[in-house]
Amino acid sequence: MGKITSKVANPLTLIALFSGVSESIALAVLPFLAETGQALPAPLIWFSVLFPTLIVVLFFATLNFNHKVLYAPGDFGDEKHFLSTFDDGKHFVSILGGNYVKDEGKIDGLKLFWKPDGQNPNKENQKILYDWMTKNNLDVSSISALLYSRDKKYSDLRRKAIDDLGINVRQL
């Protein structure tokens, strides 16, 4: 048996599939009722017309107002992105609001101070950095957040660390 290469995960595909199946069932039943020689019942005709329309409207309303319920972690390439949908876009609002800071130049010197070769931390510089973090009431286990987070708070802390520690990029 061949391997299935894709699955129906897109909400719009589910809407179309469900509406199509319900409409097909209604259309399959109508000819059998017409053969009996009786007039088609009005409720069945209204159901055939209105039910798929109602389903489409309800799915679009759900998609518009509560889109999170239509997705699962497996629908995302990286399942961590699924969790980011629950912060109501605060990360994206933060970026659009100017709180996303791309550190370049001088700020990257703090990373070089910690790992001069780009791979291994310099033990002496690491101790200096840990002491600075402790002095500034930061958890030393959050050193990666301090060095790599693009949040404005951490960007400001990196600038403060460079100024407090007197790190000169040209010397690194």
In short:
This protein has 8 helices and no strands. With 172 residues, it is an all-alpha fold.
Account of the 3D structure:
There is one protein chain. The chain is mainly alpha-helical and 172 residues long. α1 packs antiparallel against α2 (42-65). The protein folds into two domains: 11-70; 100-171. It has helices at residues 11-35, 42-65, 80-84, 90-96, 108-114, 123-135, 143-148, 152-165. The model is unreliable at 91-101 (pLDDT under 50). The termini are far apart. The protein has eight helices and no strands. Keywords: Membrane, Transmembrane, Transmembrane helix. The chain crosses the membrane at residues 12-33, 45-65.
Can you give keywords for this protein?
172 residues; mainly alpha; 2 domains; 8 helices; 0% strand; rod-shaped; transmembrane helix; transmembrane
Number of strands: 0
Shape: rod-shaped
Strand content: under 5%
**Parts with pLDDT < 50 across at least 5 consecutive residues:** 91-101
* Fraction of helical residues: 55-70%
Q: Total number of helical segments?
A: 8
Transmembrane segments: 12-33, 45-65
Keywords: Membrane, Transmembrane, Transmembrane helix
Provide the fold topology.
Elements lengths: L10 H25 L6 H24 L14 H5 L5 H7 L11 H7 L8 H13 L7 H6 L3 H14 L7
Helix pairs in contact: 1-2
